[in-house]
Amino acid sequence: MSKSISYRFTHSEVKYYFNARFSALQKLTGKDKTVLITDENIYRNHTSKFRGWNTIVLKPGEAFKVQATVDSIIDQLIAFQADRQFTLVGIGGGVVTDLTGYVASIYMRGISFGFIPTTLLAMVDASIGGKNGIDVGPYKNMVGVIRQPSFLLFDFTFLSTLPDGEWSNGFAEIIKHACIRDIAAFRLLEKNNLALMKKDRKTLYALIERNCRLKSGIVQRDEFEKGERRLLNFGHTLGHALETQYTLSHGEAVAIGMTYACHFSAGLLGFNGTGRVVKVLEQYGLPTHAAFKTEKVFQVLKMDKKRVRSEMNYILLEKIGKGIVLPVPLKELEKWINNIQS
Ligand SMILES: NC(=O)c1ccc[n+]([C@@H]2O[C@H](COP(=O)([O-])OP(=O)(O)OC[C@H]3O[C@@H](n4cnc5c(N)ncnc54)[C@H](O)[C@@H]3O)[C@@H](O)[C@H]2O)c1
Ligand SMILES: [Zn+2]
Question: How high is the pLDDT of residue 1?
Answer without folding.
Answer: 66
